[in-house]
Amino acid sequence: MNTFLLTLALAALPGGDGPSPVSRPLLRIEMKVEAQIRGTQVLLRDVADVGGNDAVLVERVQQLALGRRPAPGFSRTLGVDEVRARLAETGLAADAVAWSGPRETGLVPLFAQLQPKELLAVAEPVLRAVLEQAAASDVELEVLTQLGVTQVPPGRRSLDLRARLRDRALTETSAVVDVEVLVDDEVFRTLPVSFRLKHFANAVVVVRPARRGQPLTEECLELRRIPVSPLRPAAFQSLEELAGKVAARDLQANRPLALADVAEPAIVRKDEPVTVIATRGTVRVATRGLALQDGARGARILVRNLGSERVLAAVIVAPGTVLIETER
To answer: How many structural domains is the chain composed of?
Structure first.
């Protein structure tokens, strides 16, 4: 930029080969009484009208940055001397410019109003996409950040919002999404938006009390959408999974059904006679016994041998039949 302006200035001098007195100004700069600033930087074109015979030089000088715009709630003026000093830094001689207008220009920063709903409109989809990739689709989001109206420059060309999930900011119950405010494609400000995450899933819930051993049917169960932890998913997510199952213990109403609440139906009942099969190698001996406990297929229960009156542990293999394995 500096070299370009200096080259153009020298080329416009009489002779064109080197420095010599300027016969006429290269530029005409008329300062404004007031300048409205749309971008993040104050440009010469904001505070003055620039003219001259060299259109390229005029355009370059118009784009000359003169510093940051005033912050919200503040104002200031920009004087001719400040502009001259900035032009001198580019290599443009002081007598190459014809000045007019006031000695100072008042800077009036323009602002756009970002509403909370605009921030959420870009933050929520980003978080939703991440949650879907993690197979956590049924999640309610609660905004924790107290969002208000945010004043930002409207930009000379564009004002955009871009959101991204903050690194390592996603947990089981919370997340932080940073919303970047881009003014003319440059990040002007980053606004964090914090969320609370509430996970839900369909789960089988006990809706009526059930006694131990009672069949688990639609009379006492219901499928409901309930809050869950992603680390502890619902034990049962459909009623079909419980076909033929019974309550493993007394169940209270209004609670999700747990794995320990469910058992296979008993095929041997306490105080019922059973056939006790004892095996030793290839030898099998059947005797009569009495079940001392209820049990499902594959369960180990205590039985009394009616011949010897001994109490033994046996495995239920069929209705009315238990198996005892003895050592060789």
So the answer is: 3
Angle at 170 between CA 169 and CA 172, to 5 degrees: 135
Distance CA 235, CA 91 (A): 77
Structure tokens given for 291:
């079940």
Same domain, 282 and 205: no
Contacts of residue 17, defined as CB under 8 A and 6 or more positions apart, other chains included, come to none
Element (H, E) at 239: none
Up-side HSE of residue 183: CA atoms within 13 Å toward CB? 19
Which of 147, 131, 251 is CA-nearest to residue 200? 131
Q: With contact defined as beta carbons under 8 Å apart, do 274 and 323 qualify? A: no
pLDDT at 134: 83
Q: How far apart are CA 160 and CA 1, in angstroms?
A: 28
Its pTM stands at: 0.69
Distance CA 206, CA 261 (A): 10
Per-residue CA distances from 215 to 195, 232, 250, 264 (Å): 43, 26, 12, 9
pLDDT confidence bin for 328, thresholds 50/70/90:
low
Q: Is 206 within 8 Å of 262 (Cβ atoms)?
A: no
The predicted-structure confidence for 72-120, as pLDDT tens digits, reads as follows 888 899 999 999 999 999 988 888 999 999 999 999 999 999 999 999 9
Query: CB 302: neighbour CB atoms within 10 A?
Result: 16
Going 59 to 62 to 66 to 68, the CA torsion angle's sign is: negative
At 72 the pLDDT is: 80
- Percentage of residues in the chain having pLDDT higher than 70: 92
Cα–Cα distance list, 5 to 10, 49, 66, 72, 175 (Å)? 9, 18, 16, 33, 50
Q: Report the distance separating Cα 275 and Cα 284, nearest Å.
A: 12
Residue 202: give the domain boundaries. Answer: 111-264
Q: Are residues 24 and 137 located together in one domain of the fold? A: no
If asked whether residues 215 and 277 sit together in one domain, one would say: no
Q: What is the CATH number of the domain that holds 306?
A: 2.30.30.760
